[in-house]
Prior knowledge:
The chain is an alpha+beta fold. The chain is built from 13 helices and 18 strands. The strands form five sheets. It has an eight-stranded antiparallel β-sheet, with helices on one face. A four-stranded antiparallel β-sheet has the order 8-16-11-12, with no helix packed on it. Strands 4-5 form a two-stranded antiparallel ribbon. α10 crosses α12. The termini are far apart. Residues 1-17 and 44-78 have low confidence and may be disordered.
Amino acid sequence: xxxLPTRMxxxxxxxxxxxxxxxxxxxxxxxxxxxxxxxxxxxxxxxTERVPPSHERRSRSEPDESRRSRSEPSRAAKPVPTCFxxxxxxxASMRASCKDSPGWMFVNxxxxxxxxxxxxxxxxxxxxxxxxxxGLPEGGLDALFERMIQTADGQVxxxxxxxxxxxxxxxxxxxxxxxxxxxxxxxxxxxxxSTDDGAVSADGEVAKEVSSRRTSSNAWCMAGCEADRHVRAxxxxxxxxxxxxxxxxxxxxxxRYDPSQRYVRHHDYVPRPGQTFAEPHGPxxxxxxxxxxxxxxxxxxxxxxxxxPIAILPKRxxxxxxxxxxxxxxxxxxxxxxxxxxxxxxxxxxxxxxxxHLHDYRLPNLWGCTGAFEG
Length: 375
């Protein structure tokens, strides 16, 4: 609109005719309408400049997926490991082992075995694939130890027993010379630095970590060692001692401690926090520790959390047996049996042990459900 002239030259004003009242009213109404129109237009323009488009307003108040992924945990399913052969040439030559060594083959040769779903330990180690029968005799751990001290082949000494403490029993003369010799000669050339357990990988393998906590050397009694007739006889003797089938036993671990070497306080029941699959073999319920040499000084196995601590000297042919779990709940750790291998002073300490599980160990081990794979 155009404003009314506020003044005219005197000359034109003198000549201009006077406006009628109706004309003046019309002009005033027109001016008022124009002013209102300009005000509305100004407000809409200003609002358009200040407020972003609707899709921008949503992005600020309701994060899209790319924004949400930076601030919120992903709700996507756990990724399945990629299916491939880690060593294609070797896997192709071992195709027949997919049935004989399923754990190692499924994890290392998944494509060759056409077993990609078995890379996931939650699938591979499903409990209904395995025997879940308890290996403990009727009456549980207490009955087992009561029978042991009555029937053991050797000189028995009970160092601790319920209700004052956990069962700790030694048996002198338990091993024969031939059995000790067989364990040593079949493994000594394979000794490596002992390790602690580390993190569990996506395919269920437990990492091995060299640690200052444990400075001994060790080797595992595998196929050739286990097949030795003297080692088989030793396993039969342990079956008679415990009443538990050797299917529940881990392979013998053969150990060497040189002077100053040790293993600090630890426990044989190994929890795995954050593990996403069940262990069909169940926990370690018993340790059978075997001394294969005498030591001039040091090297004791000491139960550190007892008051007072109990320390056992290495003695050639001696067996030491203790539980890792509670008698009234064999799935729960007995914290009282934390122990250490004290540093060797003079001499060399040779020893071996087997850990006995609540359920069958050998089949889950074959399927790669125990943290290690046979292959």
